[in-house]
Amino acid sequence: MDPTASVLESDADEDGTALDAVLGAFLGAVPEATGVVVAGATGKPIASRLPAERIQLIAATAMAKLVAWAGEAVAANLHLSGMVAITIDGPSWKVIVAPTPSHAAAVVVTLDDSADASNIHIALPGLLRAVDESLEGLPTM
Amino acid sequence: MSSIWPSRSAETEEEGEERSRFPKVSWDAPLQDALTLFLTSVPGVLTIVVADRNGLPVASVSRDKPRADLVAVSAMAVLAMEAGRSVARNLQISAASTVTVEGGTWKVVVSPTPTGLANLLVMMEGTTNLGLLKLTLPRLADAVERHLETL
Predict the structure, then answer these.
(1) Are A85 and B102 within 8 A, CB to CB?
(2) Is residue A140 part of a domain?
(3) Closest approach of A75 to chain B, Cα-based (Å)
(4) pLDDT tens sequence across A64-86
(5) Total domain count, chain A
(6) pTM (2 decimals)?
(7) CA angle A85, A87, A89 (to 5 degrees)
(8) Contact residues on chain B for A97, CB-CB shorter than 8 A
(9) Chain B partners of A73 at a C-beta cutoff of 8 Å?
(10) Among A39, A115, B126, B144, whose Cα sits 20 to 30 Å from the Cα of A18?
(11) Chain B closest CA to A134's CA: distance in Å?
């Protein structure tokens, strides 16, 4: 067994645990959110508190990264700077996609439409910073 | 308030006696009128772009002279809308109706027309009446689709 691989796996597990704890704390503090998932730099899910199958989660986070990228491109082409988040609205739900400050990851938060999104927007910057801190020093995912 | 600049002429051109007897109206005048009415009715709206389903701009109005590359803007807006729909599909929730890109002092709302024939992009800055926007945007989408279907 490659000892380096073993160490990396161990780090990844610890990272996953740390991120899971961050997501759990967020959901505990913001009951309006019904789920949260973190997409890594390549669009793959690296931590999730969403009741979805992994294959659907991978597709959802990949598309969420694309939404974030396209949103930033729309803003840049309109000469608008400082994109904070993107909200996808449906008839009875919302999904908020927000890149972390370092752009190493993006966070996807789901909520019911009846929920007060302002509480999420208040708590989101802290979650994004916490996700970045959890990922610091770890290999890009 | 600054003047409104349509991307294409929606004005009746009057050049000489002949033309004033047979006024030439551009093909998209009703569409431009609908966009201009929306722009002037909803406070905070600065720019509206109509893009076809492939992301090409069809019409636009702006409170100021357009300062953006509308081809790139409309293409990326349609991409954001399609990716947003895909996020919803993969999370097995119902169809997405709008995608809103938010900055500190601005918002860009992208919304498809009822049958998906086109997409509307609405850019807002400063104080915005989002409630009024959400009430009136579906009506504008209906009007845009009706106009496009007549072409």
Answers:
(1) yes
(2) no
(3) 8
(4) 999 999 999 999 999 999 999 99
(5) 1
(6) 0.82
(7) 180
(8) 87
(9) 72, 76, 79
(10) A115
(11) 25
Section A105-116 average pLDDT: 87
Whether chain B has a CB inside 8 Å of the CB on A128: the answer is no
Say whether pLDDT at B9 is over 50.
no
Q: Using the beta-carbon criterion (under 8 Å), do B80 and A74 form an inter-chain contact?
A: yes
DSSP string, chain A: --HHHHHHHHHHHHHHHHHHHHHHHHHHH-TTEEEEEEE-TTS-EEEE-S-S-HHHHHHHHHHHHHHHHHHHHHHHHTT---EEEEEEE-SSEEEEEEE-TTSS-EEEEEEETTS-HHHHHHHHHHHHHHHHHHHTTSPP-
Label residue A140 by pLDDT band (50, 70, 90).
low
Mark yes or no for CB contact B108/A80 under 8 Å. yes
Which residues, including other chains, have CB under 8 Å from residue A43's CB and lie 6 or more apart? A58, A61, A62, A64, A65, A66
* Architecture of domain B5-149 in this structure: 2-Layer Sandwich (3.30)
The whole domain housing A77 covers 3-135
CATH number for A96: 3.30.450.30
pLDDT tens, residue by residue, A83-99: 999 999 998 899 999 99
- ipTM more than 0.85? no
Q: Is the CB of B103 less than 8 angstroms away from the CB of A83?
A: yes
Q: Least CA distance to B101: which residue of chain A?
A: A86
